[in-house]
């Protein structure tokens, strides 16, 4: 008998992506298939999604879907089984799924209430021939799905709520309660009320049968006052229902032995072939031809959360060690300007590419000797998993999933032959400078460095283990 999960997310790679949520939502269905789990993914019909659909067939229709007519399409795209909400008044907008030139779309509450409401409709069996054993909601945009299912007062499937980043919570005015099709009794502390407003993520965390987040360490951090970001008390009360399941990466997409974005393939047995990617990255980023210099990479949002201010403060130490830096990212205008100024002041030593470029992200992983990930908090992180896969040593702050996935190359780890990168205490100048000093010392031992690379490349960063954990959780919930 087929076990079916409805995965509800606001983005999904390779159709629409702004961050790691899309990578997870896109890769998990394939990994779960090996566990006997059939996943149908529900997402909004943004223009980028609608253009990629194959075999799209209308299966449900609503005269009024939060302000206009809408259809549900059953479709295939990129090898995934999809349900897509075709509601142009909500989703037919260019650019970001969440914001326009003037900031967040004002009707985001209605747009993502629509996502949760359609998920509940499917969960309640409104579509003939489709039955979900579990509805799996991802992040605040899908947070109302467990609430709608709860208030339906009908037989419903099990529900799982996954927090990819607790910092994004989805809040709106209480006056929207009726417009969001929530009953009056939902306005309560044991409902959707959250500090005087309606909390999408709070609703999901309160009503879902089980809660997951994307690493065991982050699951512990968010139960604290500091890490809980206003939701710590609720998460402590639900500690028995909360678990951390590490993310994986798609090892077919991220594979240095068959990556078209690299000038040539390499493996842990042919690390010398990696030099072509190092040279290509230096050329692409306008860095001087210095093969003996350690080349450090960054693929990140340029934000306070990601610790990018600490990188700028530690830049003199980095350059003092003779290192080069290649930065790919965008974000806080002040930090963008800070890296642009650094690149102008240190030509050939610091290179910056503003924005995001998927192929360049692969080249940074393949061409960097080490990858900086100095986050102040990090639910899981995917970029350090890619770095391990590509033989770039992750240099990470000891938080969340970074602490769970990188083995610090300290004296005992080196002696045991198990180190894969460098951990440091916190995203601040002094700890990062100390980590850079350790990295420079490791670089001097070329055979030892290559052993660290091989250790990382041998690590299992795939979805195999996480998929087994999710499959067991789904069956327990159902």
UniProtKB/TrEMBL annotation:
Annotated GO MF terms: alpha-1,4-glucan glucosyltransferase (ADP-glucose donor) activity; alpha-1,4-glucan glucosyltransferase (UDP-glucose donor) activity
Name of one Pfam family that matches: Glycos_transf_1
Cited SUPFAM superfamilies: UDP-Glycosyltransferase/glycogen phosphorylase
GO biological process assignments: glycogen biosynthetic process
Domain Starch synthase catalytic: start-end pairs: 5-236
Gene3D superfamilies xref list: Glycogen Phosphorylase B
InterPro entries: Glyco_trans_1, GS/SS, Starch_synth_cat_dom
Protein name: Glycogen synthase
UniProt entry keywords in alphabetical sequence: Glycogen biosynthesis, Glycosyltransferase, Transferase
Protein family: Belongs to the glycosyltransferase 1 family. Bacterial/plant glycogen synthase subfamily.
Gene: glgA
Source taxon at top rank: Bacteria
Protein EC: 2.4.1.21
Membrane-traversing stretches: none
Binding of ADP-alpha-D-glucose, residues: 17
Physiological role: Synthesizes alpha-1,4-glucan chains using ADP-glucose.
Broad class of enzyme this protein falls into: transferase
Location of the Glycosyl transferase family domain: 294-410
Lineage: Bacteria, Pseudomonadati, Pseudomonadota, Alphaproteobacteria, Acetobacterales
GO cellular component terms, semicolon-separated: cytosol
Pathway: Glycan biosynthesis; glycogen biosynthesis
PANTHER family found in the cross-reference section: ALPHA AMYLASE DOMAIN-CONTAINING PROTEIN (PTHR45825:SF11), GRANULE-BOUND STARCH SYNTHASE 1, CHLOROPLASTIC/AMYLOPLASTIC (PTHR45825)
Keyword Transport: no
Keyword Acetylation appears in the UniProt entry: no
Swiss-Prot/TrEMBL catalytic activity: [(1->4)-alpha-D-glucosyl](n) + ADP-alpha-D-glucose = [(1->4)-alpha-D-glucosyl](n+1) + ADP + H(+)
């Amino acid at each position: 008998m087929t076990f079916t999960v409805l995965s509800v997310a606001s983005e999904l790679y390779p159709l629409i992506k702004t961050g790691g949520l899309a990578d997870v939502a896109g890769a998990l269905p394939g990994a779960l298939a090996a566990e006997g789990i059939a996943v149908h993914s529900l997402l909004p019909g943004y223009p980028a999604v609608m253009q990629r659909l194959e075999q799209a067939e209308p299966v449900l229709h609503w005269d009024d879907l939060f302000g206009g007519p809408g259809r549900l399409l059953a479709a295939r795209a990129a090898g995934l089984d999809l349900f897509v909400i075709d509601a142009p008044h909500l989703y037919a907008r260019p650019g970001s799924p969440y914001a326009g030139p003037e900031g967040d779309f004002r009707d985001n509450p209605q747009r993502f209430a629509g996502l949760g409401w359609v998920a509940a409709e499917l969960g309640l069996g409104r579509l003939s021939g489709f039955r979900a054993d579990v509805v799996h909601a991802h992040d605040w945009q899908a947070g109302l799905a467990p609430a709608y299912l709860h208030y339906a007062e009908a037989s419903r499937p099990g529900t799982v709520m996954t927090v990819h980043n607790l910092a994004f919570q989805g809040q709106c005015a209480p006056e929207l309660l009726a417009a969001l099709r929530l009953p009056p009794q939902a306005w309560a502390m044991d409902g959707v009320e959250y500090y005087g407003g309606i909390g999408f993520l709070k609703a999901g965390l309160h009503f879902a049968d089980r809660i997951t987040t994307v690493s065991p360490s982050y699951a512990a951090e968010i139960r604290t006052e500091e890490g809980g970001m206003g939701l710590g008390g609720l998460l402590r009360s639900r500690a028995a229902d909360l678990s951390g399941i590490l993310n994986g990466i798609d090892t077919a997409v991220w594979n240095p032995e068959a990556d078209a974005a690299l000038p040539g393939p390499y493996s842990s047995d042919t690390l010398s072939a990696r030099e072509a990617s190092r040279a290509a990255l230096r050329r692409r980023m306008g860095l001087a031809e210095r093969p003996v210099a350690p080349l450090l990479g960054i693929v990140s949002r340029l934000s306070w959360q990601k610790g990018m201010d600490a990188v700028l403060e530690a830049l003199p130490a980095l350059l003092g060690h003779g290192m080069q830096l290649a930065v790919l990212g965008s974000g806080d205008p002040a930090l963008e300007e800070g890296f642009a100024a650094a690149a102008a002041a240190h030509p050939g030593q610091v290179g910056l590419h503003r924005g995001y470029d998927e192929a360049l992200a692969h080249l940074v992983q393949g061409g960097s000797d080490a990858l900086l990930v100095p986050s102040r908090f990090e639910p899981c992180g995917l970029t350090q998993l890619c770095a391990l896969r590509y033989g770039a040593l992750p240099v990470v702050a000891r938080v969340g999933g970074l602490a769970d996935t990188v083995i610090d190359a300290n004296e005992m780890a080196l002696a045991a032959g198990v180190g894969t990168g460098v951990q440091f205490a916190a995203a601040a100048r002094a700890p990062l400078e100390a980590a850079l000093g350790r990295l420079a010392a490791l670089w001097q031992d070329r055979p030892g460095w290559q052993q660290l690379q091989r250790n990382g490349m041998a690590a299992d960063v795939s979805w195999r283990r996480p998929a087994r954990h999710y499959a067991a959780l789904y069956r327990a919930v159902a």
